[in-house]
Amino acid sequence: MFTGIIEEIGTVKLLHKRANSSALEVYAKTVLEDVRLGDSISVNGVCLTVTSFSSESFTADVMPETVKATSLHLLQPGSKVNLERAIAAGGRFGGHFVTGHVDGVGRIVNKVQQENAVYYDILLQDDTSLYCIPKGSIAIDGTSLTVFKVKEDTITISLIPHTHEQTVLGSKGKGDIVNIETDLFAKYILKKTESVKKSSSLSIDFLQENGFY
């Protein structure tokens, strides 16, 4: 589990691409301070497992499903990535619950600066917008952000100067692809609601007949 509070920006050192999977090595500093084999590190919002590490970098495998569902296949040596270690029990929780299990990707369709804030309009794929509500939480490239507006399949988010400077989102613009993870609780609530609707015998006619409507 992560918080969406990015600890540092790392740099892709090596990328070994296979037919449907890959392995990457990332230069880092902060996330290596207490790293162990098997630890989870969020790379642009994707939970990856550390398979080896040195004093200046770590490696991780990217399985075929992750390659298909995320933007990691677009990375190249030299690419900058958001990094966050899994939250420790008892640690401070400054963002929201982020699993590192990306729902899909989005495309930035507009970027506008308004005084000290930078607004991004992001076009989502499939039905991802169903889990988004104004003032709700969302993780974009692993960064915990607030949804300010939802219009059909497009959401609007805003970056304060600190987030713009300390995450890879600040360097991204119109046309760029980002990883999207919607709010965990929203997914559970919608799933449960759909289940209740399918199994329930309640209807408007039933409520009217029994004096509830």
Automatic annotation (TrEMBL):
It catalyses: 2 6,7-dimethyl-8-(1-D-ribityl)lumazine + H(+) = 5-amino-6-(D-ribitylamino)uracil + riboflavin. InterPro entries: ATP_synth_asu-like_sf, Lumazine-bd, Lumazine-bd_dom, Riboflavin_synthase-like_b-brl. Residues 1-96, 97-193 form the Lumazine-binding domain. Pfam families: Lum_binding. Keywords: Repeat, Riboflavin biosynthesis, Transferase. The keyword Repeat applies. CDD domains: Riboflavin_synthase_like. Pathway: Cofactor biosynthesis; riboflavin biosynthesis; riboflavin from 2-hydroxy-3-oxobutyl phosphate and 5-amino-6-(D-ribitylamino)uracil: step 2/2. Its EC number is 2.5.1.9. Homotrimer. NCBIfam families: PRK09289.1 (NF006767), PRK13020.1 (NF009566), ribE (TIGR00187). This is Riboflavin synthase. It comes from Peribacillus deserti.
